Amino acid sequence: MGILRPKVALLNEEYKRKIFEEAKNILETLGVLIENKNAESLLREQGVPNKDQRYYLPSDLVDKCLTSPPHEITLFDREGKQHLSLEDDIIHFDPGSAAIFILDEKSGEIREPLHEDFIRFTKIVDQLTNIEAQSTSLVYSDVPKEAQDWHRLYTALKYSHKPIVTGTFKKESFTIMNELLLTCRNSEKDLAAKPLAIFDACPSPPLSWSDLTTQSVIDAAERMIPSEFISMPMSGANAPITLIGSITQHCAESLAGVVISQLVKKGAPIIWGGSPAVMDMKHGTTPMGAIETMMIDIGDAEMGKFLNLPTHAYMSLSDAKIPDAQAGLEAGMGALLAGLAGINMISGPGMLDFESCQSIEKLLIDNEIAGMVKRFVRGINDYGSPFAKDILQDYDDTNELLSHPSTLQLFRKELFLPSPILARMTRDEWKSTGSHSSRQRARIEIDKLLAASTKTELDSIKANELDKLSSTYL
Predict the structure, then answer these.
(1) Which of 78, 89, 257, 417 is the most exposed place for a label (fewest CB within 10 A)?
(2) DSSP for 346-407?
(3) pTM score > 0.85 for this model?
């Protein structure tokens, strides 16, 4: 890391404490709706007062449950090698889940995805240096509806070595998904020691945890698989219009998830995540690329860090319909702000149209953005003083510094070297190679990446196990 880690912050310590205390007060006085019988039993065992399915969580219970989750989570790849760590201000990117459309780069049309689209998407993510995790990014329609969640995990495991951010659409799916993960581990204990997947769990704003979402948290906690809470307050719709009000609601909803997970199993790994949005009062939409949405995301992450938990946010995505200037503006701004905020898992590269659409072209452009963000947060390095004097002394001998030992030794450390997607050639060279836009150059790179994607194929024994499981449940 450099001399100073570049950062951005929106809340001071006083306001973090105020938000935390009010969030606990909300849970104690307004309560939270719990629609899951297993969670209700856990809460009743603790003597938590309730009125029907609304439970009023005592502040001291919340405080107690906050003492046990791990402060960092290490994820391992399919082969069991350490891959990334969610801790401190270390940042990582994944494409986000679960878009119901894909922008077809060949036809230019937005359409429903097919299984083959997800395979292509997964193979490309597997090769992108700056996007460290897979996600079950597309919901494809050419498998039975009841198989759509576990089948995406099956496909991601088969075609990528990277850890996966996923989730369940049906309670029954978790058992199948756990079986799929176990094909890449020796036992339940090995899977817990070397987690390969994160399971998203989305409370329903305001102040409600559905049966499905709660059961996902319970199932994950029992097996010590990380749960990522994705609270989704929409300012002005189902959350206060004020940014601080939405951050406070997000905090309350996420704290309820902390309690549920830790009552299931003390020390269960959790990630303080979110996908908030402000309401666009003109169009009635929830823009993920709005600056206010990004501000809520940062505030949410600051609260997660205040509680010493790994953090997540949906940023680096765009509400544009194609990879155009708006997409670059919103994705670039979101990625940089998320990086400056030190959000551990940043979901969104590739996403368009209010999280509903994935684009491989945008994914490749966003990979470049992520690389630039990572370079920025490394900051400025001190290689020893004097910083410039000795180098400049040698200039008179050669009238250039390109061949200077310091240049040859350090240029790869100091510079982010982009792929051909970013046009840094001369105008004449740009013209001679086709005068392509960044989107067109991304399209060219897609075919190159797909042609090279066999280097991380799953070994045949594990592939056969996955196929056998898939055929059993289809």
Answers:
(1) 417
(2) EE-TTEETTTTEE-HHHHHHHHHHHHHHHHHHH------SSSSHHHHHTHHHHS-STTSHHH
(3) yes
